[in-house]
Amino acid sequence: MNKFFDEPICKDCNLEIKTIFKKLLPEQIDFLTQNKTCNIIKKGTVLYQEGNRISGIYCINKGILKIYKTGIEGKEQIIKFAKKGDVIGYRSVIISEPACTSVKVIEDAIVCFISSQELYHLLKENSEFGIEMLEIACKELGEANNYITDIAQKSVKERLAEILLHLKDEFGVNNDDIININLTREEIANLIGTATESVIRLLSEFKAAGIIELQGRKIKIKDAVKLKKMSNVF
Amino acid sequence: MNKFFDEPICKDCNLEIKTIFKKLLPEQIDFLTQNKTCNIIKKGTVLYQEGNRISGIYCINKGILKIYKTGIEGKEQIIKFAKKGDVIGYRSVIISEPACTSVKVIEDAIVCFISSQELYHLLKENSEFGIEMLEIACKELGEANNYITDIAQKSVKERLAEILLHLKDEFGVNNDDIININLTREEIANLIGTATESVIRLLSEFKAAGIIELQGRKIKIKDAVKLKKMSNVF
DNA sequence: CGCACCGTTGATTAAACTCAACCTATGTGG
DNA sequence: CCACATAGGTTGAGTTTAATCAACGGTGCG
Q: How far apart are the first and last CA of chain B?
Protein backbone atom coordinates (compact mmCIF):
# COMPACT_ATOMS: atom_id res chain seq x y z
CA MET A 1 0.00 0.00 0.00
CA ASN A 2 1.19 3.46 -0.81
CA LYS A 3 1.43 5.67 2.22
CA PHE A 4 1.98 9.41 2.16
CA PHE A 5 3.67 9.60 5.50
CA ASP A 6 6.30 7.76 7.49
CA GLU A 7 4.60 4.99 9.36
CA PRO A 8 5.73 4.81 12.93
CA ILE A 9 7.95 1.84 13.75
CA CYS A 10 6.89 0.01 16.89
CA LYS A 11 10.48 -0.31 18.06
CA ASP A 12 10.98 3.45 18.00
CA CYS A 13 7.65 4.09 19.65
CA ASN A 14 8.59 1.64 22.32
CA LEU A 15 11.95 3.21 23.01
CA GLU A 16 10.73 6.76 22.91
CA ILE A 17 7.78 6.39 25.25
CA LYS A 18 6.96 3.56 27.58
CA THR A 19 4.27 1.63 25.77
CA ILE A 20 2.50 -1.55 26.79
CA PHE A 21 4.87 -3.30 24.40
CA LYS A 22 7.98 -2.76 26.46
CA LYS A 23 8.09 -6.37 27.62
CA LEU A 24 7.90 -7.79 24.11
CA LEU A 25 10.95 -9.57 22.70
CA PRO A 26 12.68 -7.99 19.67
CA GLU A 27 11.17 -10.54 17.30
CA GLN A 28 7.73 -9.89 18.75
CA ILE A 29 8.18 -6.17 18.19
CA ASP A 30 9.10 -6.91 14.60
CA PHE A 31 6.04 -9.10 14.27
CA LEU A 32 4.00 -6.16 15.50
CA THR A 33 5.54 -3.67 13.10
CA GLN A 34 4.91 -5.99 10.18
CA ASN A 35 1.34 -6.77 11.09
CA LYS A 36 -0.06 -3.49 12.26
CA THR A 37 -1.70 -1.00 9.96
CA CYS A 38 -1.43 2.69 10.48
CA ASN A 39 -3.45 5.76 9.54
CA ILE A 40 -3.49 9.51 9.77
CA ILE A 41 -6.88 10.52 11.09
CA LYS A 42 -8.23 14.04 10.82
CA LYS A 43 -9.84 15.98 13.63
CA GLY A 44 -13.56 15.32 13.77
CA THR A 45 -13.37 11.73 12.51
CA VAL A 46 -15.17 9.08 14.51
CA LEU A 47 -12.92 6.05 14.91
CA TYR A 48 -15.68 3.78 16.15
CA GLN A 49 -19.03 4.07 17.83
CA GLU A 50 -20.75 2.54 20.82
CA GLY A 51 -22.25 -0.74 19.72
CA ASN A 52 -19.75 -1.37 16.90
CA ARG A 53 -17.93 -4.65 16.83
CA ILE A 54 -14.25 -3.82 16.71
CA SER A 55 -11.73 -6.28 15.44
CA GLY A 56 -8.61 -5.09 17.15
CA ILE A 57 -7.01 -2.47 19.33
CA TYR A 58 -5.78 1.00 18.47
CA CYS A 59 -2.48 2.40 19.58
CA ILE A 60 -2.17 6.18 19.53
CA ASN A 61 1.05 7.54 18.10
CA LYS A 62 0.06 11.18 17.89
CA GLY A 63 -2.93 13.42 18.53
CA ILE A 64 -5.78 13.40 21.02
CA LEU A 65 -8.98 11.37 20.97
CA LYS A 66 -11.99 11.60 23.22
CA ILE A 67 -13.64 8.44 24.48
CA TYR A 68 -17.25 8.92 25.43
CA LYS A 69 -20.56 7.20 26.03
CA THR A 70 -23.87 8.44 24.77
CA GLY A 71 -26.37 8.70 27.61
CA ILE A 72 -29.82 10.13 28.09
CA GLU A 73 -31.17 11.91 25.04
CA GLY A 74 -27.86 11.79 23.25
CA LYS A 75 -25.93 13.69 25.88
CA GLU A 76 -22.35 12.54 25.74
CA GLN A 77 -20.37 11.59 28.80
CA ILE A 78 -16.64 11.81 28.22
CA ILE A 79 -14.93 8.91 29.96
CA LYS A 80 -11.35 9.83 29.19
CA PHE A 81 -8.95 11.04 26.54
CA ALA A 82 -6.32 9.05 24.71
CA LYS A 83 -3.00 10.44 23.55
CA LYS A 84 0.45 9.31 22.41
CA GLY A 85 1.24 5.91 23.87
CA ASP A 86 -2.30 5.06 24.94
CA VAL A 87 -4.10 1.96 23.77
CA ILE A 88 -7.84 1.90 23.26
CA GLY A 89 -10.45 -0.67 22.35
CA TYR A 90 -8.85 -3.51 24.28
CA ARG A 91 -11.80 -3.80 26.65
CA SER A 92 -14.19 -4.81 23.89
CA VAL A 93 -11.69 -7.12 22.22
CA ILE A 94 -10.76 -8.93 25.42
CA ILE A 95 -14.31 -9.67 26.45
CA SER A 96 -15.60 -10.07 22.87
CA GLU A 97 -18.30 -7.48 23.22
CA PRO A 98 -19.34 -4.53 21.07
CA ALA A 99 -17.65 -1.27 21.99
CA CYS A 100 -19.24 0.40 25.01
CA THR A 101 -17.84 3.79 24.05
CA SER A 102 -17.41 5.95 20.97
CA VAL A 103 -14.11 7.50 19.97
CA LYS A 104 -13.65 10.78 18.15
CA VAL A 105 -10.43 12.47 17.11
CA ILE A 106 -10.22 15.96 18.58
CA GLU A 107 -6.68 16.66 17.44
CA ASP A 108 -5.19 15.25 14.21
CA ALA A 109 -3.91 11.81 15.04
CA ILE A 110 -1.75 8.95 13.88
CA VAL A 111 -3.30 5.69 15.00
CA CYS A 112 -1.98 2.12 14.57
CA PHE A 113 -4.29 -0.85 14.45
CA ILE A 114 -3.47 -4.30 15.79
CA SER A 115 -5.97 -7.04 15.04
CA SER A 116 -7.45 -9.29 17.72
CA GLN A 117 -5.63 -12.30 16.29
CA GLU A 118 -2.29 -10.60 16.54
CA LEU A 119 -3.07 -9.36 20.02
CA TYR A 120 -4.03 -12.84 21.23
CA HIS A 121 -1.01 -14.32 19.54
CA LEU A 122 1.21 -12.04 21.60
CA LEU A 123 -0.81 -12.48 24.79
CA LYS A 124 -0.51 -16.25 24.62
CA GLU A 125 3.12 -16.25 23.65
CA ASN A 126 4.31 -13.79 26.22
CA SER A 127 2.76 -13.79 29.67
CA GLU A 128 4.70 -10.67 30.65
CA PHE A 129 2.85 -8.79 27.96
CA GLY A 130 -0.43 -9.98 29.47
CA ILE A 131 0.64 -8.70 32.85
CA GLU A 132 1.49 -5.40 31.23
CA MET A 133 -1.99 -5.14 29.74
CA LEU A 134 -3.47 -6.13 33.06
CA GLU A 135 -1.60 -3.23 34.63
CA ILE A 136 -3.10 -0.80 32.12
CA ALA A 137 -6.58 -2.09 32.79
CA CYS A 138 -6.11 -1.91 36.55
CA LYS A 139 -4.80 1.61 36.38
CA GLU A 140 -7.81 2.64 34.36
CA LEU A 141 -10.06 0.89 36.82
CA GLY A 142 -8.62 2.85 39.71
CA GLU A 143 -9.18 6.09 37.82
CA ALA A 144 -12.75 5.09 37.05
CA ASN A 145 -13.42 4.39 40.72
CA ASN A 146 -12.13 7.80 41.69
CA TYR A 147 -14.25 9.37 39.01
CA ILE A 148 -17.37 7.65 40.35
CA THR A 149 -16.77 8.95 43.84
CA ASP A 150 -16.09 12.44 42.56
CA ILE A 151 -19.18 12.70 40.40
CA ALA A 152 -21.33 11.21 43.13
CA GLN A 153 -20.10 13.39 45.96
CA LYS A 154 -18.52 16.59 44.76
CA SER A 155 -20.16 19.81 43.65
CA VAL A 156 -19.81 20.99 40.07
CA LYS A 157 -17.38 23.67 41.21
CA GLU A 158 -15.14 21.15 42.94
CA ARG A 159 -15.20 18.88 39.92
CA LEU A 160 -14.34 21.69 37.54
CA ALA A 161 -11.41 22.78 39.70
CA GLU A 162 -10.19 19.20 39.82
CA ILE A 163 -10.54 18.57 36.11
CA LEU A 164 -8.57 21.72 35.23
CA LEU A 165 -5.66 20.50 37.33
CA HIS A 166 -6.04 17.07 35.87
CA LEU A 167 -5.97 18.36 32.29
CA LYS A 168 -2.87 20.39 33.03
CA ASP A 169 -1.27 17.29 34.47
CA GLU A 170 -2.23 15.04 31.60
CA PHE A 171 -1.52 17.33 28.65
CA GLY A 172 0.96 19.78 30.05
CA VAL A 173 1.24 23.46 29.10
CA ASN A 174 2.79 25.34 26.18
CA ASN A 175 5.28 28.22 26.35
CA ASP A 176 2.54 30.61 27.39
CA ASP A 177 1.54 28.29 30.20
CA ILE A 178 -1.68 27.40 28.43
CA ILE A 179 -3.05 23.90 28.87
CA ASN A 180 -2.31 21.80 25.79
CA ILE A 181 -5.82 20.72 24.97
CA ASN A 182 -8.53 22.49 23.09
CA LEU A 183 -11.99 21.73 24.44
CA THR A 184 -15.32 23.41 23.88
CA ARG A 185 -17.26 24.48 26.93
CA GLU A 186 -19.70 21.73 26.13
CA GLU A 187 -16.94 19.13 26.17
CA ILE A 188 -15.76 20.30 29.56
CA ALA A 189 -19.35 20.00 30.73
CA ASN A 190 -19.63 16.49 29.32
CA LEU A 191 -16.44 15.59 31.10
CA ILE A 192 -17.56 16.60 34.57
CA GLY A 193 -21.21 15.75 34.04
CA THR A 194 -22.93 19.11 34.12
CA ALA A 195 -24.59 21.67 31.84
CA THR A 196 -22.60 23.87 29.47
CA GLU A 197 -23.94 27.03 31.09
CA SER A 198 -22.72 25.90 34.49
CA VAL A 199 -19.20 25.48 33.14
CA ILE A 200 -19.28 28.94 31.56
CA ARG A 201 -20.48 30.59 34.74
CA LEU A 202 -17.92 28.83 36.91
CA LEU A 203 -15.04 29.52 34.54
CA SER A 204 -15.92 33.24 34.64
CA GLU A 205 -16.08 33.01 38.38
CA PHE A 206 -12.61 31.42 38.53
CA LYS A 207 -11.34 34.10 36.18
CA ALA A 208 -12.84 36.90 38.26
CA ALA A 209 -11.17 35.40 41.32
CA GLY A 210 -7.82 35.50 39.53
CA ILE A 211 -7.40 31.75 39.61
CA ILE A 212 -7.33 31.21 35.86
CA GLU A 213 -6.95 33.21 32.66
CA LEU A 214 -9.15 32.69 29.61
CA GLN A 215 -8.75 33.56 25.93
CA GLY A 216 -11.36 31.68 24.01
CA ARG A 217 -10.67 28.02 24.60
CA LYS A 218 -7.23 28.69 25.95
CA ILE A 219 -7.02 28.16 29.67
CA LYS A 220 -4.11 29.17 31.84
CA ILE A 221 -3.94 28.22 35.50
CA LYS A 222 -2.62 31.11 37.57
CA ASP A 223 -3.17 29.81 41.06
CA ALA A 224 -2.91 26.03 41.18
CA VAL A 225 -2.76 26.03 44.97
CA LYS A 226 -6.10 27.75 45.33
CA LEU A 227 -7.57 25.54 42.63
CA LYS A 228 -6.39 22.45 44.46
CA LYS A 229 -7.93 23.71 47.67
CA MET A 230 -11.20 24.30 45.85
CA SER A 231 -11.17 20.85 44.34
CA ASN A 232 -11.16 19.18 47.73
CA VAL A 233 -8.43 16.67 46.86
CA PHE A 234 -5.96 15.64 49.50
CA MET B 1 -2.93 -24.27 61.95
CA ASN B 2 -6.08 -25.65 63.47
CA LYS B 3 -9.20 -24.79 61.54
CA PHE B 4 -12.73 -25.16 62.84
CA PHE B 5 -14.33 -25.49 59.43
CA ASP B 6 -13.78 -27.29 56.19
CA GLU B 7 -11.52 -25.18 54.07
CA PRO B 8 -12.77 -24.89 50.53
CA ILE B 9 -10.71 -26.80 47.97
CA CYS B 10 -9.87 -24.72 44.90
CA LYS B 11 -10.65 -27.61 42.58
CA ASP B 12 -14.20 -27.90 43.90
CA CYS B 13 -14.71 -24.17 43.81
CA ASN B 14 -13.51 -24.17 40.24
CA LEU B 15 -15.85 -26.93 39.16
CA GLU B 16 -18.84 -25.63 40.98
CA ILE B 17 -18.69 -22.04 39.79
CA LYS B 18 -16.70 -20.57 36.96
CA THR B 19 -13.80 -18.87 38.73
CA ILE B 20 -10.87 -17.02 37.23
CA PHE B 21 -8.91 -20.20 37.85
CA LYS B 22 -10.70 -22.26 35.24
CA LYS B 23 -7.76 -22.10 32.84
CA LEU B 24 -5.24 -23.35 35.41
CA LEU B 25 -3.73 -26.79 34.94
CA PRO B 26 -4.50 -29.45 37.58
CA GLU B 27 -1.08 -29.10 39.16
CA GLN B 28 -1.51 -25.33 39.30
CA ILE B 29 -4.84 -25.77 41.04
CA ASP B 30 -3.14 -28.01 43.58
CA PHE B 31 -0.43 -25.42 44.03
CA LEU B 32 -3.14 -22.91 44.75
CA THR B 33 -4.95 -25.12 47.26
CA GLN B 34 -1.73 -25.76 49.10
CA ASN B 35 -0.63 -22.17 49.19
CA LYS B 36 -3.77 -20.23 49.89
CA THR B 37 -5.02 -19.47 53.36
CA CYS B 38 -8.66 -19.31 54.22
CA ASN B 39 -10.80 -17.64 56.88
CA ILE B 40 -14.33 -17.29 58.09
CA ILE B 41 -15.04 -13.61 58.46
CA LYS B 42 -17.93 -12.26 60.47
CA LYS B 43 -20.33 -9.60 59.31
CA GLY B 44 -19.08 -6.16 60.19
CA THR B 45 -15.38 -7.00 59.86
CA VAL B 46 -13.24 -4.72 57.73
CA LEU B 47 -11.01 -6.83 55.50
CA TYR B 48 -8.79 -3.92 54.48
CA GLN B 49 -8.98 -0.18 54.24
CA GLU B 50 -8.23 2.45 51.64
CA GLY B 51 -4.54 3.23 51.85
CA ASN B 52 -3.52 -0.18 53.23
CA ARG B 53 -0.81 -2.08 51.44
CA ILE B 54 -2.25 -5.47 50.64
CA SER B 55 -0.03 -8.42 49.98
CA GLY B 56 -2.30 -10.59 47.90
CA ILE B 57 -5.74 -11.08 46.49
CA TYR B 58 -8.89 -12.35 48.14
CA CYS B 59 -11.19 -14.91 46.60
CA ILE B 60 -14.72 -15.00 47.99
CA ASN B 61 -16.12 -18.47 48.66
CA LYS B 62 -19.24 -17.40 50.56
CA GLY B 63 -20.92 -14.27 51.85
CA ILE B 64 -21.19 -10.70 50.64
CA LEU B 65 -18.69 -7.88 50.96
CA LYS B 66 -19.07 -4.24 50.09
CA ILE B 67 -16.25 -2.40 48.35
CA TYR B 68 -16.31 1.32 48.93
CA LYS B 69 -14.30 4.51 48.85
CA THR B 70 -14.37 7.17 51.51
CA GLY B 71 -15.09 10.56 49.99
CA ILE B 72 -15.88 14.03 51.25
CA GLU B 73 -16.28 14.21 55.02
CA GLY B 74 -16.21 10.47 55.41
CA LYS B 75 -19.21 9.80 53.20
CA GLU B 76 -18.80 6.37 51.70
CA GLN B 77 -19.32 5.62 48.04
CA ILE B 78 -20.04 1.98 47.40
CA ILE B 79 -18.27 0.89 44.21
CA LYS B 80 -19.55 -2.66 44.07
CA PHE B 81 -20.24 -5.81 46.02
CA ALA B 82 -18.28 -9.04 45.97
CA LYS B 83 -19.83 -12.47 46.40
CA LYS B 84 -19.07 -16.16 45.79
CA GLY B 85 -16.57 -16.52 42.98
CA ASP B 86 -15.46 -12.89 42.93
CA VAL B 87 -11.86 -11.85 43.37
CA ILE B 88 -10.92 -8.59 45.03
CA GLY B 89 -7.74 -6.67 45.70
CA TYR B 90 -6.07 -7.57 42.43
CA ARG B 91 -6.02 -3.98 41.23
CA SER B 92 -3.72 -2.87 44.05
CA VAL B 93 -1.51 -5.94 43.77
CA ILE B 94 -1.07 -5.67 40.01
CA ILE B 95 -0.04 -2.05 40.03
CA SER B 96 1.75 -2.24 43.40
CA GLU B 97 -0.23 0.53 44.97
CA PRO B 98 -2.04 0.84 48.28
CA ALA B 99 -5.69 -0.17 48.17
CA CYS B 100 -7.93 2.53 46.71
CA THR B 101 -11.01 1.06 48.36
CA SER B 102 -12.07 -0.37 51.70
CA VAL B 103 -13.79 -3.72 52.06
CA LYS B 104 -16.32 -4.67 54.73
CA VAL B 105 -18.15 -7.94 55.20
CA ILE B 106 -21.90 -7.38 55.19
CA GLU B 107 -22.86 -11.05 55.25
CA ASP B 108 -20.75 -13.72 57.01
CA ALA B 109 -18.10 -14.79 54.57
CA ILE B 110 -15.48 -17.37 53.76
CA VAL B 111 -12.54 -15.71 52.09
CA CYS B 112 -9.38 -17.27 50.66
CA PHE B 113 -6.14 -15.35 50.41
CA ILE B 114 -3.56 -15.81 47.67
CA SER B 115 -0.30 -13.94 48.13
CA SER B 116 1.17 -11.69 45.44
CA GLN B 117 4.09 -14.08 44.94
CA GLU B 118 1.79 -16.97 44.25
CA LEU B 119 -0.35 -14.87 41.98
CA TYR B 120 2.64 -13.71 39.93
CA HIS B 121 3.99 -17.22 39.82
CA LEU B 122 0.78 -18.37 38.16
CA LEU B 123 0.52 -15.32 35.92
CA LYS B 124 4.01 -15.88 34.54
CA GLU B 125 3.64 -19.59 34.18
CA ASN B 126 0.27 -19.57 32.48
CA SER B 127 -0.56 -16.83 30.03
CA GLU B 128 -4.15 -18.08 29.70
CA PHE B 129 -4.64 -17.28 33.36
CA GLY B 130 -3.41 -13.76 32.70
CA ILE B 131 -5.92 -13.38 29.91
CA GLU B 132 -8.60 -14.60 32.28
CA MET B 133 -7.67 -11.93 34.82
CA LEU B 134 -7.58 -9.37 32.06
CA GLU B 135 -11.13 -10.34 31.19
CA ILE B 136 -12.26 -9.78 34.77
CA ALA B 137 -10.61 -6.37 34.86
CA CYS B 138 -12.12 -5.38 31.51
CA LYS B 139 -15.56 -6.46 32.57
CA GLU B 140 -15.28 -4.38 35.70
CA LEU B 141 -14.05 -1.47 33.65
CA GLY B 142 -17.11 -1.59 31.43
CA GLU B 143 -19.36 -1.60 34.47
CA ALA B 144 -17.48 1.35 35.94
CA ASN B 145 -17.93 3.31 32.71
CA ASN B 146 -21.66 2.67 32.75
CA TYR B 147 -21.80 3.71 36.36
CA ILE B 148 -20.06 7.00 35.58
CA THR B 149 -22.54 7.83 32.84
CA ASP B 150 -25.48 6.91 35.05
CA ILE B 151 -24.42 8.96 38.03
CA ALA B 152 -23.51 11.90 35.83
CA GLN B 153 -26.70 11.96 33.80
CA LYS B 154 -29.57 10.23 35.53
CA SER B 155 -31.85 11.53 38.25
CA VAL B 156 -31.84 9.91 41.67
CA LYS B 157 -35.15 8.24 40.90
CA GLU B 158 -33.83 6.68 37.71
CA ARG B 159 -30.71 5.48 39.47
CA LEU B 160 -32.70 3.93 42.30
CA ALA B 161 -34.97 2.10 39.88
CA GLU B 162 -31.94 0.83 38.03
CA ILE B 163 -30.07 -0.31 41.11
CA LEU B 164 -33.04 -2.28 42.40
CA LEU B 165 -33.17 -4.25 39.16
CA HIS B 166 -29.44 -4.63 39.24
CA LEU B 167 -29.46 -5.98 42.81
CA LYS B 168 -32.17 -8.46 41.91
CA ASP B 169 -30.10 -9.58 38.97
CA GLU B 170 -26.87 -9.89 40.91
CA PHE B 171 -28.14 -11.52 44.11
CA GLY B 172 -31.36 -13.14 43.01
CA VAL B 173 -34.47 -13.56 45.12
CA ASN B 174 -35.54 -16.00 47.84
CA ASN B 175 -38.73 -18.09 47.97
CA ASP B 176 -40.77 -15.03 48.89
CA ASP B 177 -39.39 -13.18 45.90
CA ILE B 178 -37.35 -10.91 48.16
CA ILE B 179 -33.99 -9.66 46.91
CA ASN B 180 -31.17 -11.64 48.53
CA ILE B 181 -29.23 -8.75 49.98
CA ASN B 182 -29.73 -6.86 53.18
CA LEU B 183 -28.83 -3.19 52.87
CA THR B 184 -29.54 -0.23 55.10
CA ARG B 185 -31.19 2.76 53.50
CA GLU B 186 -27.91 4.57 53.96
CA GLU B 187 -26.05 1.89 52.02
CA ILE B 188 -28.50 2.14 49.15
CA ALA B 189 -27.93 5.90 49.21
CA ASN B 190 -24.16 5.42 49.17
CA LEU B 191 -24.51 3.10 46.25
CA ILE B 192 -26.40 5.51 44.01
CA GLY B 193 -24.73 8.63 45.36
CA THR B 194 -27.54 10.43 47.13
CA ALA B 195 -28.83 11.25 50.63
CA THR B 196 -30.44 8.64 52.85
CA GLU B 197 -33.65 10.65 53.08
CA SER B 198 -33.99 10.75 49.33
CA VAL B 199 -33.81 6.97 49.15
CA ILE B 200 -36.46 6.63 51.84
CA ARG B 201 -38.81 9.02 50.11
CA LEU B 202 -38.41 7.38 46.73
CA LEU B 203 -38.81 3.86 48.09
CA SER B 204 -42.10 4.90 49.69
CA GLU B 205 -43.12 6.46 46.42
CA PHE B 206 -42.34 3.23 44.54
CA LYS B 207 -44.27 1.31 47.17
CA ALA B 208 -47.26 3.63 46.92
CA ALA B 209 -47.21 3.17 43.16
CA GLY B 210 -47.36 -0.59 43.65
CA ILE B 211 -43.99 -1.16 42.02
CA ILE B 212 -42.25 -2.67 45.04
CA GLU B 213 -43.11 -4.12 48.45
CA LEU B 214 -41.20 -3.27 51.60
CA GLN B 215 -40.86 -5.00 54.97
CA GLY B 216 -37.99 -3.40 56.79
CA ARG B 217 -34.94 -4.02 54.66
CA LYS B 218 -36.65 -6.65 52.62
CA ILE B 219 -37.44 -5.47 49.13
CA LYS B 220 -39.66 -7.28 46.67
CA ILE B 221 -40.01 -6.10 43.10
CA LYS B 222 -43.61 -6.39 41.96
CA ASP B 223 -43.47 -4.61 38.63
CA ALA B 224 -40.08 -5.02 37.01
CA VAL B 225 -41.36 -3.72 33.68
CA LYS B 226 -42.44 -0.40 35.12
CA LEU B 227 -39.22 -0.19 37.10
CA LYS B 228 -37.20 -0.75 33.97
CA LYS B 229 -39.14 1.94 32.20
CA MET B 230 -38.45 4.32 35.07
CA SER B 231 -34.76 3.52 35.06
CA ASN B 232 -34.35 4.71 31.49
CA VAL B 233 -32.26 1.72 30.41
CA PHE B 234 -32.64 0.37 26.93
C1' DC C 1 -33.63 1.74 81.60
C1' DG C 2 -31.21 4.35 78.52
C1' DC C 3 -28.31 4.50 74.65
C1' DA C 4 -27.30 3.84 69.78
C1' DC C 5 -28.71 3.00 65.35
C1' DC C 6 -31.97 3.01 61.87
C1' DG C 7 -35.97 4.65 59.53
C1' DT C 8 -39.38 8.19 58.58
C1' DT C 9 -41.51 12.67 57.70
C1' DG C 10 -41.82 17.69 57.18
C1' DA C 11 -39.94 22.21 56.18
C1' DT C 12 -36.52 24.89 54.25
C1' DT C 13 -32.63 25.93 51.42
C1' DA C 14 -29.33 25.70 47.99
C1' DA C 15 -27.34 23.98 43.89
C1' DA C 16 -27.71 23.33 39.36
C1' DC C 17 -30.66 22.71 35.25
C1' DT C 18 -33.55 24.55 31.72
C1' DC C 19 -35.15 27.95 28.74
C1' DA C 20 -34.58 31.95 26.17
C1' DA C 21 -32.34 35.59 24.15
C1' DC C 22 -28.46 37.44 22.17
C1' DC C 23 -23.55 37.94 20.64
C1' DT C 24 -19.43 36.58 18.06
C1' DA C 25 -16.64 34.25 14.83
C1' DT C 26 -16.34 31.43 10.95
C1' DG C 27 -17.38 29.53 6.82
C1' DT C 28 -20.38 28.96 2.60
C1' DG C 29 -22.89 29.72 -1.45
C1' DG C 30 -25.11 32.94 -4.45
C1' DC D 1 -18.26 40.47 -1.59
C1' DC D 2 -22.20 40.14 0.95
C1' DA D 3 -25.97 37.58 3.14
C1' DC D 4 -26.82 33.98 5.61
C1' DA D 5 -26.27 29.84 8.26
C1' DT D 6 -23.96 27.45 11.88
C1' DA D 7 -21.58 26.59 15.98
C1' DG D 8 -19.96 28.12 20.05
C1' DG D 9 -20.11 31.29 23.90
C1' DT D 10 -22.47 34.27 27.34
C1' DT D 11 -25.95 36.11 30.46
C1' DG D 12 -30.33 36.43 32.95
C1' DA D 13 -34.61 34.54 34.92
C1' DG D 14 -37.23 31.01 36.58
C1' DT D 15 -37.83 26.26 38.03
C1' DT D 16 -36.70 21.81 39.68
C1' DT D 17 -34.28 18.57 42.12
C1' DA D 18 -32.32 16.97 45.81
C1' DA D 19 -29.62 18.23 49.94
C1' DT D 20 -29.84 19.77 54.57
C1' DC D 21 -31.75 20.41 59.06
C1' DA D 22 -34.69 18.99 62.62
C1' DA D 23 -37.70 16.25 65.15
C1' DC D 24 -39.48 11.90 66.35
C1' DG D 25 -40.68 6.72 66.52
C1' DG D 26 -39.16 1.99 66.70
C1' DT D 27 -35.93 -1.70 67.86
C1' DG D 28 -32.31 -4.13 69.98
C1' DC D 29 -28.86 -4.49 73.36
C1' DG D 30 -25.73 -3.89 77.38
A: 52
Sort out which chain A residues have CB atoms less than 8 A from B152's CB and list them. 71, 77, 151, 192-193
Distance CA(B193)–CA(B209), nearest Å, equals 23
- A77 and B153 within 8 Å at the Cβ level: the answer is yes
pLDDT, tens digit (0-9, with 9 covering 90-100), for B125-184 = 999 999 999 999 999 999 999 999 999 999 999 999 999 999 999 999 999 999 999 999
What chain A holds in terms of domains, given with CATH numbers, is 10-126 (2.60.120.10), 151-231 (1.10.10.10)
**Cα(B158)–Cα(B171) distance, rounded to whole angstroms?**
20
Region for B141 from its dihedrals, namely left if φ exceeds 0, alpha if ψ lies in -120 to 50, beta otherwise: alpha
Q: What angle do CA B100, B186, B57 make, to 5 degrees?
A: 30
Q: Using an 8 Å Cβ cutoff, are A109 and A63 in contact? A: yes
Angle between helices A224-231 and A156-171 (to 10 degrees): 130
Cα gap A139→B58, rounded to integer Å: 19
Q: What pLDDT is recorded for position A9?
A: 81
Dihedral (C-alpha) A28, B141, A95, B161: value to the nearest 10 degrees? -170
